[in-house]
Structures are given as C-alpha cells and as structure tokens.
Design a protein that fits this description.
The complex is a heterodimer. By secondary structure, chain A is α/β, with parallel strands linked by helices. Chain A is built from three helices and 16 strands. In chain A, β1 (3-8) and β2 form a beta hairpin. In chain A, α2 runs parallel beside α3 (86-97). The chains are: A alpha/beta, B mainly beta.
Chain lengths: 209, 142
C-alpha cells in the first residue's frame, strides 16, 4: 500500500492508495462512497458483475484497519446503494467481526435505510476541529472533507491516449475523496490551478503537478 | 479430608469448565497478517473434539480447498472440519493428539488447542517449529 503524507491546517493526513485517508491524531480512517449493493443492483437488471466485488472492498477495508490501527472509521456517505441485499449482510458481518472499531456513517443521498444496525452510528455531519466531514461538499468555518463526486482526472500519455484515474483533491478550503468502492465509476473533474491533485493508479499515489 | 475433597472438587470443576469453554464459535485469526477469515465451531463427538468452518466472513462463501489432498480436494471450505480428533487432556487442561488442516495450503499439522484469556489458542506443529493462532470468540449478530 502506497502512502502520501500531507499537512492540512496543521494536521497530518495520510493518503492511502487503497482510496482512503487516515488522520493519525484521532486514529480515524476516512473512506467514501462504497456503494455496497450496487453490483447486486446491476446484476438484478441483467448486467453481469462479479459477486466478489464488494468482498474485495471489505477486505481492503480490513487491510486499511490493520495497517493504520484505526480506532474509528468514517464513511462519508453512499455506503450502500438504495436497498438491502447480501452485500449489506456481508458488511454487517464485517463490522460485527471488527467490533472494537467505531463506525460512523455520515449519511448521503443513497443512504435511505429505515433501520440502521446498532454498531453503525449515523449522522448528517461531523465536525472535529479543524475539519468538518460531510457527504456533499459544504462551505463552513472548517476545512471540509467530503465524497459524493467520485473525482477522477484524465492523464494523457503518448499518442494522445488518455486514461481516467480516481483522485484526491485538496483545495484551499475543502477536500474531495475518491470513491472507495471498486464498482463505482469516476467523474472527470477540472481542478483549479491551486488545487493539489493526487492520482491513484496501479496502487500508487502520484502528485499531479 | 474436607479440604482434599474441596481441592478435588475445584480441580474437577475447573477442568470441566476448561473443556466446555472451548466449545462454540470462534473467529479464526491469521497469525501472520492478523486478518479474520472464517467462523469455526468447536464441537464434541464421541469424546473427541472437532472444529468445523461454519462460514467465511466477507470472503467468497464458495471458496474451495484447491490444494487439499484426497477426498477433500476441491471441496467447499465451509462445512469442512479443519480441526479433527482432538482429545481433552485434563492434566494440562488442553486438547491434543488431533490434527489441524490449513485450507489454504492444504497441509495437515499435528496440533493442540487451549483456552487462554478468553481466546482459543490453536497450535500446529511443523517439524520442530510451531505456529499458534489466537482465535477470538464469535457472537451471533442480533
């Protein structure tokens, strides 16, 4: 797993190539947009997607918890995709197995379960100085960290061939996290001149100039 | 005389407790990586103790033991006895003289197990060396 350490508002944040951020001061692992159940949703509508996609996501989450020794995991919304299915049950198995970790869901537009499991704390917004955590980017007095957009940038190679990779974006007042789920899709963004963009490709993090 | 009976009683009750403590469901923990892979249920049959994989956790439930030998080859790991034929050894308060199967390598080790600080210690012997895993209790999701 590749890492990149950054200083934001005097706090260290570690970007991890498994599409997560770790905040060492509070031992919080931050991931966004897992979209559990999305693969199942597509399968139901006749599109073949491997049943193991979400298992990889959960195993990556396990690796991240082991690697960072995180005490809490923040899910920045869109944890699951519209409704319950077996992928959701595997997730419950996961948080039950790792019950020494605290799980906080900062609910997003897809998170519409009527009943949440007890082990999952749900809130709309979380503020921990100097950061605020939301699903959709918000302007406030803190440095806002959010998900939602699944940011990606196209890197042009030779022969004008371009490939789009997921990325982290760190602007002056806010940050955008890439989607953690492997089966999620990427939205191309146009970063501002002063934004710092970190691209993830081949399990490596590259700082785009 | 009374104290001897009391001591015997204590010894007896302690060992019975030690025996039953191991029964039930445990989460397996890889000793090298620390990752948790499956739930194994320890049960008793005809005086011997076995450990059956009852489910894989956030891993493919269709995982098969591709490296297993004989009858077990390519069988589903779920439903497999990965601990077999252990006997309870009262004197040492442990289970031994059994075997442990690693469903990933397909190898079978001589091994023993015991409960220590609420964990099930599972040890497999490889020549003069051994590896020990500390399995943690599994409780059903409400």
């Amino acid at each position: 797993m590749n890492k990149f350490s950054l200083s934001i508002k005097g706090e260290e944040l570690i970007l991890l190539s498994l599409r997560a951020v770790f905040w060492p001061t509070n031992k919080i692992l931050i991931v966004s947009d897992l979209h559990l159940g999305k693969a199942g949703h597509f399968r139901k509508h006749g599109i073949a997607v491997s049943k193991k996609v979400h298992l990889h996501d959960l195993q990556n989450l396990e690796l991240l918890i082991k690697e960072t020794d995180a005490e809490s995991v923040f899910f920045l919304g869109d944890l699951f995709h519209s409704y319950q299915n077996t992928e959701w049950e595997d997730f419950l198995d996961f948080i039950h197995t790792y019950d020494e970790v605290e799980y906080i869901l900062i609910a997003g537009n897809h998170d519409i379960l009527t009943e949440y499991p007890r082990a999952l704390n749900v809130t709309k917004k979380m503020v921990l100085y100097p950061f605020s955590f939301t699903h959709v980017q918000e302007e406030d007095l803190h440095y806002n960290i959010s998900g939602h957009v699944h940011p990606g940038v196209t890197v042009r190679g030779r022969m004008r061939m371009g490939m789009t990779f997921p990325c982290f974006v760190f602007s002056e007042h806010y940050a955008l996290l890439p989607a953690f789920g492997q089966f999620t899709g990427i939205k191309k963004i146009k970063p501002n001149k002063d934004d710092r963009v970190f691209v993830i490709g081949d399990n490596q993090i590259f700082n785009l100039p | 005389m009374k104290s001897i009976i009391l001591i015997l009683f204590l010894f007896f009750s302690y060992s019975v407790l030690g025996q039953s403590e191991a029964l039930g469901k445990w989460i397996t923990v890889d000793d090298k990586t620390g990752v948790r892979k499956s739930v194994v249920e320890i049960y008793e049959k005809d005086g011997k103790y076995y450990g059956e994989v009852v489910k894989m956790i956030y891993r493919d439930p269709g995982t098969r033991c591709t490296r297993c030998q004989g009858d077990l080859k390519n069988q589903l790991v779920v439903g497999m006895n990965i601990i077999s034929g252990m006997k309870y050894d009262k004197r040492n308060d442990e289970f031994n003289e059994g075997t442990i199967l690693n469903p990933e390598s397909g190898k079978i080790y001589e091994g023993k197990m015991w409960v220590e600080n609420g964990k099930l210690m599972v040890r497999g012997y490889i020549m003069f060396f051994y590896r020990t895993q500390a399995w943690i209790p599994y409780t059903e999701v409400e």
